[in-house]
User: Fold this.
Amino acid sequence: MSDLTVTVEPGRQDIVITRTFDAPRDVVFRAMTEPEHLARWWGLDETDTVVDRAEVRPGGTWRFVEKAADGEEYAFHGVFHDVVAPERIVQTFEFEGMPGHVAMDTHMLEEKDGRTLYRAISVFQTVEDRDGMVSSGMEEGLAQSLDALERLARGLA
Assistant:
């Protein structure tokens, strides 16, 4: 059972996410950064994710497209600002359906007793952007993605 927590404090521009994974930190980091693994966990359960680009290095870009059964496509992209294996990834995140609303995401991994503590902070340009992300159902999609990441990381371990 997942111990996912999503903290959204009123009036702030950030979302803080924590979760533990039953896999070593280096394995979780590989699953989060190696292009051949990304499509296996990123996105909703009912969509297929296509990794258009995943240049996981400072200055590298990424673009993923989620394809729904009805033919709809939802694309997301960003730039990697910092990548320190196996402990941290800093990147931007933008939904192409709402251009100009960019978040800065910091993903941190800490190993404890063979398990990995994941902590992420997403900082939005405005409180309204942050609240729009929350109201879009991001917590459900996040939970689905992180559950899939857990399954993948356990399989890779």
